[in-house]
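User: Hey, my collaborator sent me this sequence without any context and asked if I could get a structure. I don't really work with proteins. Can you help?
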Amino acid sequence: MARVRFSGNQSVIDHVKKRTTIGRGKLKTSAMNKAKRRTYKKYRGQGK
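Assistant: No problem. I've predicted the 3D structure and written it out in structure-token form, which is a compact way to encode the shape of the chain:
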């Protein structure tokens, strides 16, 4: 959800970007395809 900051007379909206499945960091599972969400694994690679 976007946050609203007030500076003087006008409000400034800080937009929060949609968290994606591509790349690292926290991702948004609610925006994922159901099948992709079920099979999602945090790290697919060697080790972990």
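In plain terms: The chain has one domain: 3-39. You can pass these tokens on to your collaborator as they are.
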